[in-house]
Structure formats: C-alpha cells, structure tokens
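Margin note from the TA: students keep mixing up input and output lines. Inputs are the sequences; the output is the structure of the whole complex. Example:
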Amino acid sequence: KQEVTQIPAALSVPEGENLVLNCSFTDSAIYNLQWFRQDPGKGLTSLLLIQSSQREQTSGRLNASLDKSSGRSTLYIAASQPGDSATYLCAVDGGSQGNLIFGKGTKLSVKP
Amino acid sequence: DAGVIQSPRHEVTEMGQEVTLRCKPISGHNSLFWYRQTMMRGLELLIYFNNNVPIDDSGMPEDRFSAKMPNASFSTLKIQPSEPRDSAVYFCASSQQRGGKDEQFFGPGTRLTVL
C-alpha cells in the first residue's frame, strides 16, 4: 500500500530564504507526482506535476524534483516571501486512473 | 474557465439528516474525484468517475455515502443519514486524462458540520 510522508510537518523561515520541502513515498511504481498549495480554509492549488519519466519541473521560483528509485521528491522555493505561507501537499498517482495518495503536508510560514 | 465549482460552501446539519454536496467539473475534463479532508486522516479519495462512470468507490466509508454523475458537467455526493463523524471538508476535483499528465484541479471545498 502506497504511503506518502512529508517532512517537516511545519517550517518557519525568514523572508528571502531558499527552502526545501521533502516528500517520500514507499512504492516507486508511480504514474506521476503532484505538488499542491493549500491556503487556510481554501481548496488546493496545483503547483507542479512531474511525470514518472521526468526528473524535475520548474515554475517561477518553484522547482520540484523526482527520484523514483529512492522514492523521493523535493520542492525548492527560492527567495521565499510572506505570500508563500501556506500548507504544501505532495500527492502521488499510482496509475489507477487517478487515485492520488496525499501526504499530510508541510505548513510553511515565511516571516517578514 | 471558472474552475471546479462546488456547492454549498458550508453546510451545518443535524445528525440523521440527508446531506447532498454538488460539483461542476471543468468543462472538457473527463475524470471527476471526490475527496474528504480531516485533521486526523488528511486528504482521502472517496470515489472517482471516468466519462461519468464510477471507476473506484473503495474509499467510500459506508453505505450511507453515495455518489452520482448523471452527465459530464454535474456530480453529487450524498450522505444519508449523516453522523457527527462525517464532519470534514469535502473536495471535488477534475482532470483531463492524457497519458501521465493528468493534473487534477480542485474546487474550493464544502465544509460540512454534523451536529
């Protein structure tokens, strides 16, 4: 059974820092991996999707990497801003036509 | 595009009452997903549809839960009778399946409170 773990559960950094959020999964047979952002009381916003054949994806200050063999993904946020404060969720698609398995998320707080 | 639309945004009901949550997926998407989010268990998939057909409902917790998708632009999740432990945020998501790039887009969620 696929399990997704995100470490740390919470992270507080000063504005301007570069930071890395970690995601690990137990079954490397994944279809793709998706990173989401969730603001308090809101839905999920898709940030990046990495297909199983890809190693990384970039969008603006965000870079996500995928290492299937080791069951790991990282989300790198450059030059963090207070507006980046949110919970970041990692989810893997095991290929069952869309069954996303989510981690519990990392709650990020960027202090001005 | 308006994105995935869910209604109501908030629902407060009493134990034993029927609850119906509604979702309109993004136009052109062929897959629709219902998730439930709680503090204890995080986000869990309840059921998903492909081309309006239920594919996997193994996440539906009990027979009290049922979901339908009568057409490509509408789905409902019904709980009857509701119980306090059903209190959670229910999300609907949709995607256009295209061989690995099946990015899911989420609605704003329905916050359900069962008293």
